[in-house]
Design brief:
The chain is mainly β. It has two helices and 13 strands. The strands form four sheets. It has a four-stranded antiparallel beta sheet with strand order 3-4-5-6. A hairpin with a 5-residue loop joins β3 and β4. The longest helix has 5 residues.
């Protein structure tokens, strides 16, 4: 609407009906970052009931726009968790996220692009985990995008469409 896309998060009951107690009274919440091509690519439920989700959007910049990622979090009732910077939202320029998981310590582990194919880790408050890689990021060499991430016995594994994995 109005040239902007929205990310909509809904919760459903076990019988398939919309849970109207979530983001009452509608059972869903929406958020627009004011730009087109916004999409949510990953979602994780935290142990305390909060919901973390991440995605990509584009801001106007020339003919094609500038890609950026977002990471945000909601409380279990469907309201946004303002404990993250930027009123519950963190982002950076010329970047994208393809997948995200939340680790047992509630840090966000994401894969995507930020000056190269990479794995990034963010603290629970949305700031970069400076103890991870270089300034919170590990660049992965190669030309194919990193598409997914999983945790295996304390380590992480990432994969790209070519089926090549990198463990850390």
């Amino acid at each position: 609407t109005g040239g902007s896309d929205y990310t909509v998060i809904s919760r459903f009951n076990t019988n398939g009906t919309l849970d109207t107690s979530f983001a009452s009274p509608y059972g869903y919440t929406s958020r627009s970052f004011g730009y087109q091509y916004q999409k949510c690519v990953a979602m994780s439920l935290l142990s305390d009931g909060r919901i973390a989700f991440a995605g990509t959007y584009q801001v106007p910049n020339g003919s094609f726009g500038e890609p950026r990622y977002f990471i945000t979090r909601m409380l279990g009732d469907g309201s946004y968790d303002l404990g993250l910077p930027g009123n519950g939202f963190t982002s950076t320029n010329y970047s994208s996220i393809n997948d995200m998981i939340v680790e047992s310590d509630n840090k966000f582990l994401v894969v995507g692009f930020d000056n190269g194919n990479c794995v990034m880790r963010f603290n629970e408050d949305g700031t970069r985990d400076l103890g991870f890689g270089t300034s919170g990021k590990v660049i992965i060499n190669g030309t194919t995008s990193v598409r997914s991430v999983s945790i295996q016995q304390g380590d992480f594994t990432v994969a790209n469409p070519d089926g090549i994995g990198v463990a850390g």
